[in-house]
């Protein structure tokens, strides 16, 4: 494991470029095995999840190269094989191989995926979709076994009981080559789903309605890549750096941004008193002075993203008064609270509400990044704090943020990654 060492209290300024969306990338890489030709992705983020997904591809005789932000994947000689459990268990999104393998081979065996511990994230809606498409699903011994009869998958009408990004993506992956027409109702609307559908449609898929709550898929027999697919900018990385810039910045320009994807987040920043300058594909964050408290309630897109409720917390600590955060998606996403309290933050849970009070002075100390977005919150807090902050389990931050140390250095931060052989009790 690694630790992040931050010498805080420095004001930051400059510009940086947002990388490709992690939540698109971890779906696009499994989707690549549906292609009957090599595929290429541009603006691929340099994160540990990409490394682990490439290990999974390699186990199936699918070679890949990753140079200058371009990832090339060749699935033309793919073989069915047991997927490496250590890579599967390291990231939640490995479950997209269920839909991709089912779409490619009409069967799949996948170990239950790992990822961040942020509360229950059941796959019942995924399984419901697979069964509707004609698959038989058996769960046993920490694995999922999915198979079809000789006729393969067939189109179906599927109504999701809850809006689920993961289930929506997995059903798309399984249905894109199925016989007949599939309709997904109550589908998730996230930009990453549109990105996936764009990639597949450019290869010959017939997917309509991505970005709405009804997605229609006409199955096709083959998919052929004809051009490099450029991954959309990461809206969660964008929000994290917006919070950082408003917390400790003297003027920061974020480039490669889609402002429309950020409206629920930037609206809260503007409500707090941050004078954002929003351009066509960039956002400038000036030095922020007087900030007011806000009330945030997470929701499915286009609502406030659950992945951003922790990264905005260090900015809420600067507001005069109490801010309230309600996470309706993952109410147990509170690992950052005790860690921030170690630094002197006035933050606590009260009646399932996260109450964030004004905290003018944070003090660097030893904290632990229990998961990606908790780690991001601690990173911003460490940059704001007096003294040195050491964040253990920093691998969790590296899992989700593209070249984060290089980008922080660009802004003038004093931060480094070091080995952390012993992880103290949190």
UniProtKB/TrEMBL annotation:
PANTHER family: UDP-N-ACETYLGLUCOSAMINE 1-CARBOXYVINYLTRANSFERASE, UDP-N-ACETYLGLUCOSAMINE 1-CARBOXYVINYLTRANSFERASE 2. Phosphoenolpyruvate binds at residues 22-23. Pathway: Cell wall biogenesis; peptidoglycan biosynthesis. This is UDP-N-acetylglucosamine 1-carboxyvinyltransferase. InterPro entries: Enolpyruvate_Tfrase_dom, Enolpyruvate_Tfrase_sf, MurA_subfamily, RNA3'P_cycl/enolpyr_Trfase_a/b, UDP_GlcNAc_COvinyl_MurA. Keywords: Cell cycle, Cell division, Cell shape, Cell wall biogenesis/degradation, Cytoplasm, Peptidoglycan synthesis, Transferase. The gene is murA. UDP-N-acetyl-alpha-D-glucosamine binds at residues 92, 121-125, 307, 329. The keyword Ubl conjugation does not apply. It is found in: Cytoplasm. Its EC number is 2.5.1.7. The active site is at 116 (proton donor). HAMAP family: MurA. Pfam families: EPSP_synthase. GO terms for molecular function: UDP-N-acetylglucosamine 1-carboxyvinyltransferase activity. It is an enzyme of class 2 (transferase). The keyword Methyltransferase does not apply. NCBIfam families: murA (TIGR01072), PRK09369.1 (NF006873), PRK12830.1 (NF009470). It comes from Lactiplantibacillus plajomi. It catalyses: phosphoenolpyruvate + UDP-N-acetyl-alpha-D-glucosamine = UDP-N-acetyl-3-O-(1-carboxyvinyl)-alpha-D-glucosamine + phosphate. Its main location: cytoplasm. Cell wall formation. Adds enolpyruvyl to UDP-N-acetylglucosamine. Residues 7-408 form the Enolpyruvate transferase domain.
């Amino acid at each position: 494991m690694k630790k992040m060492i931050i010498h805080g209290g420095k004001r930051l300024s400059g510009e940086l470029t947002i990388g490709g969306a992690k939540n698109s990338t971890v779906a696009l890489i499994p989707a690549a095995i549906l292609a009957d030709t090599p595929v290429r992705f541009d603006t691929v983020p340099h994160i540990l999840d990409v490394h682990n997904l490439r290990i999974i591809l390699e186990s199936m005789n699918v070679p890949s190269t990753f140079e200058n932000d371009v990832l090339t994947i060749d699935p033309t000689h793919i073989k069915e094989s047991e997927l490496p459990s250590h890579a599967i268990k390291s990231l939640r999104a490995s479950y997209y191989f269920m839909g991709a393998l089912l779409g490619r081979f009409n069967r799949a065996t996948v170990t239950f995926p790992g990822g961040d511990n942020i509360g229950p994230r059941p796959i019942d809606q995924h399984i419901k979709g697979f069964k509707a498409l004609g698959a038989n699903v058996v769960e046993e011994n920490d694995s999922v076994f999915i198979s079809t009869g000789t006729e393969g998958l067939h189109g179906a009408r599927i109504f999701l009981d809850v809006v689920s990004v993961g289930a929506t993506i997995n059903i798309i992956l399984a249905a894109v080559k199925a016989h007949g027409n599939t309709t997904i109702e109550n589908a998730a609307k996230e930009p990453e789903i549109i990105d996936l559908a764009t990639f597949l449609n450019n290869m010959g898929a017939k997917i309509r309605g991505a970005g709405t709550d009804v997605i229609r898929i006409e199955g096709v027999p083959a998919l052929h890549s004809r051009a490099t697919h450029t991954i959309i900018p990461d809206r969660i990385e964008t929000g994290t750096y917006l919070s950082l810039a408003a917390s400790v910045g003297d003027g920061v320009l974020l480039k490669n941004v889609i402002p429309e994807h950020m409206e629920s987040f930037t609206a809260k920043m503007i409500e707090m008193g941050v004078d954002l300058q929003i351009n066509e594909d960039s956002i400038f964050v000036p030095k922020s002075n007087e900030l007011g408290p806000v009330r945030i309630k997470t929701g499915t897109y286009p609502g406030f993203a659950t992945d951003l409720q922790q990264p905005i917390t260090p900015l809420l600590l600067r507001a005069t008064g109490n801010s309230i955060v309600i996470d309706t998606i993952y109410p147990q996403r509170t690992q950052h609270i005790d860690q921030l309290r170690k630094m002197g933050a006035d933050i606590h849970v009260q009646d399932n509400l996260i109450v964030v009070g004004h905290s003018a002075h944070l003090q660097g100390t030893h904290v632990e990044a229990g998961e990606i977005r908790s780690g991001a919150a601690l990173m911003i807090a460490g940059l704001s704090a007096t003294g040195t902050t050491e964040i253990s389990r920093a691998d969790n931050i590296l899992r989700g943020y593209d070249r984060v140390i290089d980008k922080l250095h660009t802004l003038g931060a004093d931060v480094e990654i070091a080995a952390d052989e012993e992880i103290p009790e949190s």
